[in-house]
What we know:
There is one protein chain. With 429 residues, this protein is α/β, with parallel strands linked by helices. The protein has 12 helices and 20 strands. The chain has helices spanning 16-23, 75-87, 108-120, 133-141, 158-174, 182-197, 203-212, 246-249, 284-292, 311-321, 360-365, 391-404; strands at 4-8, 29-32, 41-45, 48-52, 65-67, 72-73, 97-100, 104-105, 200-201, 217-220, 260-266, 269-271, 305-307, 309-310, 325-329, 339-348, 351-353, 367-374, 408-412, 420-422. Strand 16 and strand 17 form a beta hairpin. Helix 2 (75-87) crosses helix 6. The termini are close together. 6-O-phosphoryl inosine monophosphate (IMO) binds at residues 8, 11-13, 38-41, 126-129, 131, 133-134, 222-224, 227, 238-239, 272-273. Residues 8, 11-13, 38-41, 126-129, 131, 133-134, 222-224, 227, 238-239, 272-273 line the site of 6-O-phosphoryl inosine monophosphate.
Amino acid sequence: MANVAVIGAQWGDEGKGKIVDWLAERADMVVRFQGGHNAGHTLVIGENVYKLSLLPSGIVRGTPSVIGNGVVLDPWALKAEIEKLTAQGVKVTPETLHIADNCALILPFHRDLDALREDASGAGKIGTTRRGIGPAYEDKVGRRAIRVCDLAHLDDLGPQLDRLTAHHDALRAGFGEPPVDREALLAELREIADFVLSFAKPVWLMLNDARKRGRRILFEGAQGVLLDVDHGTYPFVTSSNTIAGTAAGGSGLGPGAVGFVLGIAKAYTTRVGSGPFPTEQENEIGERLGTRGHEFGTVTGRKRRCGWFDAVLVRQSVAVSGVTGIALTKLDVLDGFDEVGICTGYRLRGQVIDHYPSNAADQAAVEPIYEMIEGWHESTAGARSWAQLPAQAIKYIRRIEELIQCPVALVSTSPEREDTILVRDPFSD
Ligand code: GDP
Ligand code: IMO
Ligand code: MG
């Protein structure tokens, strides 16, 4: 039976949460496989708005939800998010939430280090979410991390903590900060350990078993391909691999488990934080996109930068992530524009190129080549069938499909769960 991996095909905030929630109705479980609470996914269901950062978006429907080993987990952020959702009437129990016991933890000094580095970087800062994501992944790869399973053995953590604090104390000293208070850290961990452990298990076992029994797994990516640590706009990226291939390794399943890869792309482009953005519109077009699209970050409240759809970048995301079909979101935001732009290529120092270069200076130097398409004045907001879309909007979608070399499987026309047009069902493909 088909599984589906949902990934962002731009710089994040493409509307993954809405699409995952919508697809979760037909999934047996939803699995997060990378990132952490740097993600911010907004779900609108009737009168209710749910904001999720760490928990898989399936949790709102009660679909069994899994946090895979590829995620970095802040125990206090987890508890706060569960409490917030519980207050909104969502049930989060050890029956509905399963956390990989080999997840690396985000600790308070990771958050400190993220902020200290950003503050010291001036104009060169990455514009991170300051959640400690980068420093936590560094410790994981550096083989110093404390993991979920270690919470059951806090009394035996001595040598592990020695290595970890020696590393961080040296870094902190460089910033004029005091060493890590080990006793305070252990006390905080003791207080939260049982809560986290109540959800912990070897989820790879559970997932492999589910797969054998033909259960439908929906993988929920965070961020987007252009923030991928290898394929994105390095160094202005997040510290994980955001491509669909990570769904397997980040959950403990083989690569064959991934199935249909659904890339989520906005009908225009946004980015939050620093870094190159070829089609950015720092003018009234960008303002209008931002206002109509309510482009403010879910996690940090920062204003998102806005611009036209970049077909070169999305084509690249489709290729490196093996995207089978695209969900094109926020089409309604383009309603009423006289014309809409699509970037079809770049000019780099006089030469026309058809892909995004890897070098940071080249990425900053490319000039977009636009194709302007006549807009539409009818409303697409709330459309639930292809027949409800104006002819010009359909032309726009068809042109995007051609340029990115990938079919559109879904179209989203408002934040509301049901305002979604199904063109091709990812689960029965
Ligand atoms: P994610 O991080 O990819 O899950 O996306 P976010 O939730 O951070 O940002 C997407 C925003 O757009 C959210 O506020 C959604 O409610 C909203 N949204 C999603 N799809 C649509 C759509 O088709 N039209 C409009 N107008 N808003 C949408
Ligand atoms: P969702 O899942 C948009 C960006 C940050 C910054 C860079 C590195 O909601 O799409 P980090 O804190 O990860 O070290 O920050 O990545 N970023 C996101 N931008 N959506 C996200 O997640 C993001 N998560 C991180 O703004 O530029
Ligand atoms: Mg988001």
